[in-house]
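subagent[fold] <- orchestrator: predict structure for attached chain, return tokens only, no commentary.
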Amino acid sequence: MAKCCRCAEALCCLAGIAILAKHCRCAEALLTEKEKSMDILERAEKAAERKQRGGYNCAQAVASVLADQTGLSEAELMKITSGFAVGMGNMEATCGALIGAVIAAGLSVEGKGTVRLAKRMSEEFSKKTGASLCKDIKGRDTKVVLCPCEDCVRNAVLIYGETVGIRE
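subagent[fold] -> orchestrator:
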């Protein structure tokens, strides 16, 4: 079993992607005051770093850096987004990074206009990454990777910022 890169506690694993276990102290952490004051570029880099370092799936990496915008804790968002790894486990569905950004957007606007935001975010995401389905982005059928996961995560956070903006 893998260990958390932050607290060294055991991690669960789903399709090779580490997911923080319920008992992991990191899952209970909230964004620090410094993280809450990050601009969108810093948040995008932090999300990409979290994805690359491990312990976060794409949806979790995105949602976790936007937690202060949602009214939920990082721990709650980690649980909500835990099932969105690897295109919902089989690469057949929407990229988790985009899902994480849309979840954060919906919470940020309290559900008002979320469908419109999701459409706009999905269109922008596809332009930047070449597709919105995990299998297409990862080149499962074509063997051509359109965008690495870290870049998908970075793009999703930036698109959130362009579409919704960051509340102070």
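orchestrator: received. Logging for downstream: Residues 85 and 95 are 8 Å apart (CA to CA). The chain has one domain: 32-163.
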